[in-house]
Amino acid sequence: MRTYEVILHEQAWTALHATKGADRQRLLDVLDQVKTTPFRPGDYRQRDATGRVNEVVLIGQWLVTFWSDHAVGEIRVVELERADE
User: Fold this and answer.
1) Residues contacting 47, CB < 8 A, separation 6+
2) Where are the alpha helices (DSSP H) in 1-85?
3) Residues 81, 63: contact at Cβ < 8 Å?
4) pLDDT digits (tens, 9 = 90+) for 10-52
5) Alpha-carbon distance 78 to 8, whole Å?
6) CATH at 74
7) 65-80 pLDDT, tens per residue?
8) What's the predicted TM-score (pTM) here?
């Protein structure tokens, strides 16, 4: 199976950067789960401003919004947010 690369958009990078300690490790584990399942459908879908369909998954305490670019093997994570806040 092809290996995908996770690409963080600015909002997702900011959320990761603001997370420290054990919470950061849990978030990195979440991103690894998304990376290893690039064809995973979201718990729900939402369209972005360009009309692209983004998958939204709840993993642990995190909502991860992403779209998979299968042509180049990338997972584009556009948003990370805590579900419990």
Assistant:
1) 53, 54
2) 10-18, 21-36
3) yes
4) 999 999 999 999 889 988 998 998 899 999 899 999 999 999 9
5) 6
6) 3.30.2310.20
7) 999 999 999 999 999 9
8) 0.89
Domains in the chain, number: 1
Single-letter residue type at 30: V
Query: CB under 8 Å to 62, separation ≥6 — which residues?
Result: 26, 27, 30, 80, 81, 82, 83
Both structure tokens of 73: 């093997």
What is the chain's Cα-based Rg?
A: 12
Pairing of strands 5-8, 62-69: unpaired
Sheet holding 53-59, edge to edge: 5-8, 74-82, 62-69, 53-59, 44-47
